[in-house]
């Protein structure tokens, strides 16, 4: 059965937010690179050892920056998928939730890198709730499309 898809006129907001998330990755790269330089750890070492991090606050900060970046990489693909799918039916709400996610992830990165694991909580909370909303909207978009085609 043929299927046509029309993008809502507000879908540009969704694409703008999706594009903004690319710069969050760059921000993580900068934080990790600065922390690596400060710690003196050379490539290809991905993390300071537990002993190094316990003795050297700069090595600990590098580990926090690396982990924050790793967490972003783990979460950006599902975020983008949910954002792009949900935006088909709910472009403005999706863009708003997506913008909250992006801002939450910046806060998460800055907090985790500067203050360690406790510094990530505020950004995590914002990004987690907005991510959940996007996933619910994405699922509902799929359900609506299935019901319309039946």
From TrEMBL:
It is a multi-pass membrane protein. The chain crosses the membrane at residues 12-31. Gene3D superfamilies: Membrane associated eicosanoid/glutathione metabolism-like domain. Its main location: membrane. GO terms for cellular component: endoplasmic reticulum; membrane; nuclear envelope. It is found in: Membrane. One of its GO terms (molecular function) is glutathione peroxidase activity. It holds the Pfam family MAPEG. Keywords: Membrane, Transmembrane, Transmembrane helix. SUPFAM superfamilies: MAPEG domain-like (SSF161084). PANTHER family: GLUTATHIONE S-TRANSFERASE 3, MITOCHONDRIAL, MICROSOMAL GLUTATHIONE S-TRANSFERASE. This is Uncharacterized protein.
